[in-house]
Amino acid sequence: MEVDLGILASRLFSSIDAFLNDSLLFAFIKFFLFVYCAVLLVDIILLFLMRDVAADLKMTLLGAERPLVKRSKVIRRWEAILSRLESGSESQYKAAVLEADAFADEMLRSMGYKGVNMRERLDQAKVSQLESKDSLEAAHAVRNRVINEESFTLTKEETEACLSQYRRFFDEIELFS
Question: Which of 148, 159, 171, 173 has the fewest CB atoms within 10 Å around its CB?
């Protein structure tokens, strides 16, 4: 007895096709899955509407919140810090570094980093969240020397370098844009 595989396969596929097209059970399963998918789609849409998707996306992409401040206030404050460089006085250079550090600390606090001081807030930040972390730590170290060492001197060039490190942080968090 010879069996033709082509005919056997053809009959098998036609039987499966007839079951899928004519079966009441399969029609019920298709209807149930259609309703289930529709409910899932409505659920997903409602979840997006109930949550602040834009903020979640920004948090996911950047890894940290970004401060919400008025651009004009920020620019005025930064220009006031930079204007201290024009005086030619070392005490004004130190004041510029202290003000820039306080400004950076406020921004870290508003970004959601917890801690008693800037050092603790910086310790919480990861380099993947804050690419300018190393330069901010270096600038903060200069600020600490200004505070803790009475004999510490600061030239205009050193102050400009320190302020450029703070500026790198401010640019990263899109403070001026």
Answer: 148
